[in-house]
Amino acid sequence: MIKVWKRTPPSPLAKTLSLEAALPLLLAQLLINRGVKQVDGVRAFLSPKLALIANPMELKDMDQAVAMILRAIENRERITIYGDFDADGVTATALLVRFFSHLELPVSYYIPNRLVEGYGLNEEALRRIAEEGTGLLITVDCGISNMGEVALARDLGMDVVVTDHHQVPEDFAPLCPVVNPHRPDSLFPFKNLAGVGLAFFLAVALRAALRQKGWFMGQPEPDLRTVLDLVALGTVADMVPLQGQNRILVTAGLERMHHSFCPGLEAIATMASIVPAEITPYDIAFRIAPRLNASGRLGSAEMCVAVLTTDHVETARAMAAQLEAMNRDRQSIERGIFEHIESELSSKGISDDRRTLIFCGHGWHRGVLGIVASKLAEKYHRPVLVLSVQDGLAVGSGRSIPGFNLYEALRRLRPLLKRFGGHQHAAGLALELSHMKEFSEQLETLARERLSPEDLVRAVEIDGGASLEEMTIETLGLLKALEPFGPGNPEPLLLARSVQVIESRVVGDKHLKLKVRQNGAAVEAIGFGLSEHHSLLGKRVNLVFTPEIDRWQGLEKVQLRLVDLELADGPTKLT
User: Which domains are assigned to the chain?
Assistant: First the structure.
């Protein structure tokens, strides 16, 4: 895959911010690159405290939602939490189940079967929930596009509160309290909460209202710090930006994880060989979340809520073992579809000027199509849709790249679709196979309007230049204050020019191990998957890297984790 390097120009504000906030110039530049340009913002970013969370009552309809839930609590009505089947939805569901259970209220939950019922509210489920005696239905991570189903739920005798963080449809006309930070009439200062973050703010608002009513005069209040592990898990798994309120919640959630998991999360982490005290967002996104998502991808996700709400260690371990087995099955199914598509591409090829890629297969397992689409979009750097065809209907998922809003494109093609939903970079859809040719052509036309040939070349976004002399244990300790890293706050990516390679070797099958020197400072570097550049001994190179601390047998040293490199005296990738 061809790459270009795009370096963020040094900001004229960096020196001022460095002086005013007493920060090294490099750290000041990194903060500016992340949108932090004022001293007050620096303090909030580097010390994301729970005391800085926003007022949940600024969310539109939160007051109505709280009032409706309070009536249900006072009347001891049965409450059902209706969630989505991904990690965000099941953590949000588990959070509210644990909250209402602490209050000793009658609460149950419902997660639709991905393969049978699909995403969101559905009529058959609502009828069953009503028949079971539910008086109040609370949705988490779904419902914003289901006002027809909300009307049915009300006709069935249930009150409904919708909490959802997905995009608000154009024809949105609320029939009940709808708490969504994307509502244009919401005063909430942060738009990009995950579903579990929204559920947390609902719990905060409810606890405050119950406290005001004297509910806790004779019983302890729910300690919402105990559910922050769920908030961190769902937020990181949903790949929302780790900025603003999300940064506060994830930081607090990681701190909770470092000292205490709920039994289910601890069992899953043990299966993944994760040390709780060292858990990172990477561990959550790529080791815990896939295991938690496994059962929902293959069918029912109700076990995911069960494992997150049980207090019994042995039960948690047994369910975690089942999730582990399901995850292995999921990997096998996913690998089969991916390899089938790769085989098809190797025989047909991809036109260089093609902006979008759409793949259809009869009977492909719908639960893994989003992961396959994500891997293909990563590899080919184009918007990708992967669809399973059955009985004339194509259903699946899409993933996009910077510069192309997939949700907006699907909205414009709505007449061709039976249904769709999602975000800028990820979406789900269904359409009649008879519309596929027209849909494919129109999607390609929209992509050509938005994406230039340069947009199809993967860009390595460089934060700035650095010398090897700056790469010290002390500097890396300061950079650690930028954690947690993730979408919207990536790991620092730096450029060191014209460094001399004094050692070069291949480790493992395809990894490059270097030792480089610049102005008397020598540092080791590792480039995973970069062995094709060997041997570089004696040559001068430009390196793009993330600095990290390598710990071995109680010793610490600086190491550069290489992302890319080029010969210093050859053609440059820098644009």
Answer: 3-33+463-567 (2.40.50.460), 54-322 (3.90.1640.30), 350-458 (3.10.310.30)
